[in-house]
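Consider the following input, taken from an annotated entry for Acyl-CoA carboxylase subunit beta (Echinicola strongylocentroti).
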Amino acid sequence: MNNLENPNGVYLELIQQLIEKTATVKQGGGEQRIAKEHEKGKLTARERIGYLLDKGNDFLEIGLFAADGMYQEEGGCPSAGVVAGIGQVSGRMCVIVANDATVKAGAWFPMTAKKNLRAQEIAMENRLPIIYLVDSAGVFLPMQNEIFPDKEHFGRQFRNNAKMSSMGIVQVAAIMGSCVAGGAYLPIMSDEALIVDKTGSIFLAGSYLVKAAIGENVDNETLGGATTHCEISGVTDNKYESDEECLDAIKRIFDTLGTTERAGFDRKTPQSPAVASEKVFEIFPVDRAKPYDMHQVLETLVDAGSFDEYKPSYGQTLVCGTARIDGWAVGMLANQRKMVKTKKGEVQMGGVIYSDSADKAARFIMNCNQRKIPLVFIQDVSGFMVGSRAEHGGIIKDGAKMVNAMANAVVPKFTVIIGNSYGAGNYAMCGKAYDPRLIFSWPTAQMAVMSGASAAKTLLQIKVASLKKEGKKITPEDEAQLLKEITEKYEEELSPYYAAARLWVDAVVSPLETRGMISTGIEAANHAPIKDRFNVGVIQT
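Applying the prediction step yields:
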């Protein structure tokens, strides 16, 4: 990657930043904490996952940058203290969730709960088996009010345990460290619960709390160790002498799983793109003010010769068409970023959704649902067109039609944000609120209600007006300083890492990883047959 030729070098800096941030986050709680786990005879969360995975199969990690830059007053919480993603175990695609005991002893922060729920959501949507590798001290008590009682908080995972069981989704849990209080229900609500002797323990209340609550003196091993639960209570199914033995048992379980029904998405022999993927660094400008032809970007993503454009001369600010990615048939919707001219002589701005492009997109989405083709959205969108001409032309009506068709799509949707993702454009192009099976950002992405420059000026006007109401005199120098401060804060919030920290996107990825991630996502989605009928309900015409 360091050998890539890039005229301005900015891409290399962005990719290098991604590489360095990835390496840092994967260290979890740091080398000393990792060494302490090894001293106990335990593997780390990432080592456990690596041991489980089939050799030669990649792990599509979800939420690597979850909680990035958050909880600094608590010392930080890299990856939200849990590692999650999609991989292959004994030839079966599955979701794996592993508490990282090197980060605050695997304690649950608010973002830990959100990330665990996202992993369960992926398993449920794609009907994938799920493996839980449990090693957690329980809820991080100083923040219990942000994680305990609400619908999308800690308890939702146990509801999901029950729902997945009723759906026939296989759940296997291994207790490989602490498993305390309410968290004890997660492995025991799974189909099979394994435990590692001497290092694994599970109880509703530890020895100190038992002493305080009922005055009983008992050690943790007697209270809830492997022998207790495998030979006395029957809470766990089998115990193992080491992490490796326990993980081997999971492999054997997965080796016996029967095959399941497939969705039947079409796949042919994969072909490399017509334009080498590395060329995207020359085609796609880092400077978001510069125009470019989205067709050229697509040529670096789709299989050579596979793109069949839909209505190429109509609604040109949205490029739509069927193609193949790594052999999989897909329907592509991508924002065109160069200026285009309609047959009526109207000049349309790149990155903006107009009435004709929204109308085209709605029809194309409906066609893909009719033909059972997964949808891929490539976002570089500034929003919908504004002004009297657009309003008189019914832009809201046409935008609503596009959103309706996209929101009701029954085929799986995947979203890649490569540049701008602003306002209602984010929604129409299948932002997180619209249930994409996976959503990724390139390091060049920005997500917000509007661009940094526009937002900063608007916020400045509000701030100045507020200060003037208080009777304060604002000089031009004061305004300049305020604008600088507002701009810096807003620009930080535009960062793809800011979005990834809050799980608005599943990952920040290099452009070179995009094809593989979409392919893995469709392979996962193929495990879930489409049962619902496509129905848009009442649609604006």
